Amino acid sequence: MRFDEAYSGNVFIGSHPNYEESRVVLYGMPMDWTVSYRPGSRFGPSRIREVSIGLEEYSPYLDIEMEELKYFDAGDIPLPFGNAQKSLDLIEDYIDGLLADSKFPLGMGGEHLVSWPVMKAVAKKYPDLAIIHMDAHTDLRTEYEGEPLSHSTPIRKVADLIGPSNVYSFGIRSGMKEEFQWAKENGMHISKFEVLEPLKEILPTLAGRPVYVTIDIDVLDPAHAPGTGTVDCGGITSKELLASIHAIARSEVNVVGGDLVEVAPIYDSSEQTANTASKLIREMMLGWAVENKK
Predict the structure, then answer these.
(1) Where are the transmembrane segments (predicted)?
(2) Chain centroid, CA 266 distance in Å
């Protein structure tokens, strides 16, 4: 699989043309083969790129311009439609290659199951890995209607891989009772409903550790992000999510990768969700991947 050529024509604003010279690689995972409600997130990465043209390249939150970060937009990984396992294998192989080249991977989904092979690959490189997970849903099922490959399972899969005590979920407001019980009994951290304040309490305990951050756009209230497959009322505001991204950026944790998933543009004719996601991606890159931050 080639890493030094973009898979698609559209690129996120400010993308550097050279893979070798770039520290960060932005890539899309256009898969929604296992969703349990509304499909369409496979179109998320492409649309997030397209609307990024409306962004400024300067972050007033972080006082950093995108030209200070060399990043390469590799486009969308070509995934075989309907074949979940092969798609996950291709994603894992791709991330293995990025990490072998010492790149910082930043992914765009796609359904949340695509985060699983990424976290699996990152855990191979960083044995002391911790996961920060922001979401409306627990995603702790072992299967959905008999199918273990489901977008409701990625956090359980990574918890089983690296240990539940190394997984920290925030903003959770939906899930089976058994999922919450499993987390409590196995030492996994779950903050219900809120993100920013409990995140601030946890971050000092993760100082110096490699951390992967996975964000499901439905952690936001549907008023802020209606364009997603499984909307759930009672979520946080876009302002709080931005503040949470910045809190991670200003902490002492070692962010080694991240993703933003579950943007489904078809359900938001205003394109509010895609535009919000685009800004979040900018802040994730500038906040987590710029060396010698101000």
Answers:
(1) none
(2) 20
Q: Which residues contact 201 (CB under 8 A, 6 or more apart)?
A: none
Q: Is residue 25 part of a domain?
A: no
Q: Name the average pLDDT for the chain.
A: 95
SS3 89: helix
Report pTM. 0.96
Is 112 within 8 Å of 193 (Cβ atoms)?
Answer: no
Question: Of all residues in the chain, what percent carry a pLDDT higher than 90?
Answer: 94
| SS3 call for 245 | helix
> In this structure, is residue 15 part of a structural domain?
no
Average pLDDT over residues 252-257: 97
Q: How far apart are CA 90 and CA 206, in angstroms?
A: 30
The parent domain of residue 256 ranges over: 33-43+109-289
On the question of pLDDT at 78 being above 60, the answer is yes
131, containing H or E segment? strand 130-134
Region class of 222: left (phi > 0), else alpha (psi between -120 and 50), else beta: alpha
Exposure of 160 by Cβ count < 10 A (0-12 exposed, 13-18 middle, 19+ buried)? middle
Q: What is the DSSP letter of 224?
A: T
